[in-house]
Amino acid sequence: MTPKYHPQEIENKWQQKWAADHIYKVEEHSKRPKFYALTMFPYTSGDLHIGHWYAMAPADTYARFKRMQGYNVLHPMGFDAFGLPAENAAISRGIHPYDWTMKNIKNMRRQLRSMGAIYDWNREVVTCLPGYYKWTQWFFLKFYHAGLAYRAKAPVNWCPRCQTVLANEQVVGEGFCERCSAPVTKKDLQQWFFRITRYAEELLDHSRLDWPERIKIMQTNWVGKSEGAEISFRLKHAGVEEKEIRVFTTRPDTVFGVTFFLLAPEHPLVSRLTTLEHKTEVTEYVVWCRRQTEYERVAVGREKTGVFLGSYVVNPMNGENVPIWISDYVLPTYGTGAVMAVPAHDERDLEFARKFKLPVRTVIAPPGWTGEELTEAYGGSGTMVNSGEFSGLSSEQGYEAICDSLEEKGSGRRTVVYRLRDWLISRQRYWGAPIPIVYCDRCGIVPVPEKDLPVLLPSDAEFRPTGESPLKYCESFVNTTCPRCSGPAQRETDTMDTFMCSSWYFLRYTSPKTRVAPFNHSKVKQWLPVDLYTGGAEHAVMHLFYARFFIKALKDMGLVEFDEPFTRLFNQGTIIYRGDKMSKSRGNVVASDEYVASLGADAVRGYVMFIGPWELGGEWNDRGIVGISRWLNRVWGLVTTGYTSRVVNPGAEREFLHLTHKTIREVTADLEKFRFNTMLSGLMEFSNYLSRVKESGVVSSSLWREAIAYFVLLLAPAAPHLAEELWNKTGHPYSIHNQPWPEYDEELTKEDEITLIIQVNGKLRDKVLVPSSISDMEAKGLALSRDRVKAYINGKKLAMVIYVPKRVVNVVLG
RNA sequence: GCCGAGGUGGCGGAAUGGUAGACGCGGCGGACUUAAAAUCCGCUUCCCGCAAGGGAGUGUGGGUUCGAGUCCCUCCCUCGGCACCA
């Protein structure tokens, strides 16, 4: 009696042996082509759950497949270890963020090892360790010296009751403080920015990237490029030195329809352009706007608000005086923070005009327009009317003519604006990489010299439940000397956005131990760019976008030689549980440890792959996991018990070879397309077939052994432990994971016989097994001679007979 | 509102424009067992029929085609992203 399949035993055994033999240690010098297969590293939340397995097990299976195909594969793992939850744990449970994080890493590392992946643990990267964040700070300095980092005032979420800054995730519901439920407002703070907008145009170029279309679209929308014109409206207001206000518009052809002018309430000219009699009203409105929560301000369907300043600008095209209003629907951060309002052709402007009884003038006639007042704003193209010398032109011609005219007069020009804003990297938090800047009373802003890095996080900071950054009150940290003049100075107490850490970790994996630089240049040259990056689509416009920017900037600084980090991107779907994405913060995680303990890692790996297409994700349901487990047990029995050849049948052997090679072909194709679910069902079908052959014993023992070897090899990426054990048990040399991927024989995958489908008027009426070499004439003749078909013809006229080679005959009756 | 993905048995899902429902779960029946679990075998889209067979069927309604789950148009629903961007 052969022993039963005990997954835990064999999994433990092989994991230890693989580790002891370093069989997954990445070769530095290899003649094999490189393949960098990267999975987004996890945040150190504490537990690896089914959601992580869903991301990582299929990725590992694919990396293993590439490895067997002969690539030198780098498939590393690490931890995204800075972030707010660590700090919250410190406040609520009195554990230092460092201890909390390292404890979590220890657990997650154990869990990751239990998965049996090919991670080379010598390359592990942990972003919260000084050996790593030193280089995050180093990159900050590089960006600073390249003129890509600057300081400016920017609003933060502010809780007036707690007197503290809130991260977006601490603003809950309709804009309330997570801690005290007070309405959250905005407060301006000096913060650090990266000039990502300088790369807007480059970031729009996805032409060399093999990425999902929807991610490219999301990024394109995020950049939000608009072409149009900047138009100067003249200003003659006593006591105001500015002689013009510029606006951006995508529709310069509607400039004759301007009936009022809008500024954002935050616009710097507002108070100076307000006349005496409107002062009180305007001030009140501006204060009211500031008190609005973000949620209220952007709420859809909200009634328009605004006030008149009492002053006017002049339309450069028709010389008209246009009243200046302010309204909070004008965004201070887009375009110039000022808008020429054309109510006839813009829905929002029309709403505003109706509310405040401002005139509406149609200047673009929709097709078939007869001069009546438009009931809704018309944003399409048409014929220009009420537009002076431009009347009669099409709006497209008018667009060009008005731009030409503005440029001639010097009161405007064609231009492009982007929705994209600069990257705010400051966080008013402790658990992040400190921004390496010192403020000196004498020298001003002074970057910390490279030789003084890292700026270490103080370990003695106090964590008070205020939510204010502990660094601010840590005197040993704040007080320092100026690197330039040695006088007294203060350190910047903000830390960096964790997206900084994740913008370059994939470089560090190539040379994680380097102490003299963030990475070894030649190693990066050897491995990068990443050939395949897999992870969740939730990072479409944050992480993936920042990382692209980062690399483009490094390229321009001469630090790397490529300008796109991730050649190919694949997004797996999301695992939903109880109606929500599975995550620790949502409190709906399904632990993987129990499944690993009871059914084995190979079963869990297999099940997460079997659920459905990887890109679709889906609701977690463990009902089917026993199916995979049972199958692995059957495979065990199939391979480990002896085969006896009985009556060898040449026809059966031909079929056996055919199905073996067809399976190799299909499993290979499925893996290449990330169709792990159909890869497994293909292997199941094959193993079911093998069981039947085993019963009948119709193939020779040598043929059987060969097919079993192929089968185990095909199983190896998905169920690495079981495959290793079976490989060993069938007398093959260690290790299966160093074997080449099986090749199929094209000739053998071809069908000898096919089932010919016979239809009458497109409906299935008969099937017949025929040699695949059957000719057109033979097939049609055969179909017409079938009794079932004759019964349908029954004297009716034959309109036509269609034969689709090797598939179907359709008899069409008149 | 805009952009994207999706809608197929009781469930997860499978189907180069050519046999709809592979594979698995669950269910039903049987074998083994004193019994149960495990395992193995058979059946399992719905309706009519003892059967042979026939009819219906891939969110809705239309279209293209000899033939549509698959292609085109309309609408409905679910999920993800963006959302007063001038």
Tell me what the structure shows.
The structure is a single chain. This protein is 36% helix and 19% strand. By secondary structure, it is α+β, with helices and mostly antiparallel strands. Among the domains are: 225-418, Isoleucyl-tRNA Synthetase, domain 2; 634-749, Isoleucyl-tRNA Synthetase, Domain 1 (Orthogonal Bundle), CATH 1.10.730.10; 753-813, Roll (Ubiquitin-like (UB roll)), CATH 3.10.20.590. The strands form 10 sheets. Strands 10, 11, 12, 13, 14, 15 and 18 form a 7-stranded mixed sheet that branches. Helix 2 (50-68) packs across helix 19 and helix 21 packs antiparallel against helix 22 (676-696). The longest helix has 23 residues, at 650-672. The radius of gyration is 34 Å and the shape is globular. The protein starts with 6 loop residues before the first helix and ends with a strand. The protein binds one RNA strand of 86 nucleotides through helix 7, strand 11, strand 15, helix 11 and strand 30.
**Number of helical stretches of at least 4 residues:** 27
End-to-end gap: 67 Å
CATH classification class of the domain at 225-418: Alpha Beta
C-alpha Rg (nearest Å): 34 Å
Largest sheet: 7 strands, mixed
Report strand %.
Answer: 15-25%
Principal-axis shape equals globular
What is the name of the CATH superfamily of the domain at 225-418?
Valyl/Leucyl/Isoleucyl-tRNA synthetase, editing domain
Mean pLDDT: 90
The SS-based structural class is alpha+beta
Low-confidence stretches: none
Oligomer: single chain
- Helix share bin: 25-40%
Architecture per CATH nomenclature, i.e. the level-2 architecture of the domain at 225-418: Alpha-Beta Complex
For this structure, the CATH topology of the domain at 225-418 is Isoleucyl-tRNA Synthetase, domain 2
How many β strands by DSSP?
Answer: 34
